[in-house]
Specification:
Length: 351
């Protein structure tokens, strides 16, 4: 078996965003960087010394190309390979196979095509949220000014009326003006100048869960599946509570009288949000087993005033997205009948 690579090569490999696996002339794995561990969902500690194609059966399609690369000392590229890595994980990659000149070692470099699509989608979501935020803030300010005048005029009119039936109409005007003011304040969102402080994400989630349990019907169960290794992060705890509570309430409304909501946390290393790479991020999943969101609606749910329910305001998800964006994070959604997942990504830069 070929000797292990020098320490400087290891450091370089582990800082690459592209997944790299090195195999010897017996096709045994001798090196795997962190990006490859994440991509293939395997541990390098377990993989070292194992046969590549036996340890990762999804790569069996590379057998001929690896043989030719060794025998001819030539580089090969396999494009748009579909790798089935589990019952819920199928990815598409380009694979470059490069022989090293001085030793009988092949480098396999994997570029995940799905990743580029995801980055593009995330950048679009971030830009969309920023544009929407500026638009609705402008509209909200324009609405608040005449709304205050309308409410004040209704109060003055009520004081002049002696007929109780007529006063009922002014009360309706005042009540509706208050409702619109609450809606507008929701559109304006919180004060972004709130300072961030050390925050335990699981304390945030437990607070959200305690509120949701009170609101949930008897037939709805709220479970948790936490990763205790997630470190404390700097955040505005109240803002995260509001964002996550909006997601959980959305799940409660989707379930109706029965179902299950799961709050799950995990960490992810060397992860990009938009086009910015982070050393470590927290992943928070709010999962429900409700009817799901239609494909047509999934592309619009983070727009304000878009809702699939007659009683919905359509501002809960846009506000949640905005609050998470203010922490450098992002909310994504995947949905099919029986499983809807809202995923919150939050950078853990100080971890």
């Amino acid at each position: 078996m070929t000797d292990a690579m020098p320490i400087d090569a290891r450091e370089i490999l582990d800082n690459l965003t592209r997944a790299v696996v090195a195999i010897d002339d017996e096709r045994r794995i001798i090196r795997m960087n962190a990006a490859a561990e994440w991509l293939l969902h395997v541990s390098s500690r377990q993989a070292l010394g194992e046969s590549l194609l036996q340890f990762v059966p999804a790569l069996a399609g590379l057998d001929d190309a690896i043989q030719q690369a060794f025998s001819q000392a030539a580089s090969y590229t396999e494009r748009e390979m579909r790798l089935v890595l589990g019952p819920e994980r199928t990815i598409t990659v380009d694979c470059a196979i490069t022989p090293l000149e001085t030793v009988d070692v092949l480098l396999l470099e994997f570029e995940q095509l799905d990743r580029h699509l995801r980055i593009s989608r995330e950048n679009r979501l971030i830009a969309q949220n920023q544009a929407i935020r500026e638009l609705i803030r402008g509209l909200a300010h324009e609405i608040k000014n005449p709304l205050g005048g309308l409410r004040g005029a209704a109060q003055l009119l009520e004081s002049e009326l002696s007929d109780e039936d007529q006063r009922e109409y002014t009360r309706i005007i005042i009540s509706e003006a208050d409702r619109l003011r609450t809606l507008v304040n929701g559109l304006l969102g919180p004060d972004s100048r709130i300072e961030h402080a050390p925050t335990n994400l699981h304390e945030v989630l437990e607070h959200v869960r305690s509120l949701a349990v009170v609101e949930a019907p008897a037939g709805v169960e709220i479970r948790r599946d936490y990763d205790p290794s997630i470190p404390v992060m700097r955040a505005a705890g109240d803002q995260l509570i509001q964002a996550l509570l909006n997601l959980v309430r959305n799940a409660l409304q989707a379930l109706g009288q029965s179902g299950t909501i799961t709050l799950q946390t995990r960490t992810q290393r060397r992860f990009t949000i938009g086009d910015r790479q982070h050393r470590l991020v927290a992943r928070i999943d709010v999962v429900d087993d409700g009817p799901g969101i239609t494909p047509a609606m999934q592309d619009q749910i983070f727009y304000p005033m878009v809702t699939g329910r007659a009683e919905g305001s359509g501002i809960g998800l846009p506000i949640a997205q905005n609050l998470v964006n203010q922490h450098g994070g992002l909310i994504e959604c995947t949905s099919e009948p029986g499983r809807t997942v809202f995923t919150v990504w939050l950078p853990l830069e100080d971890a």
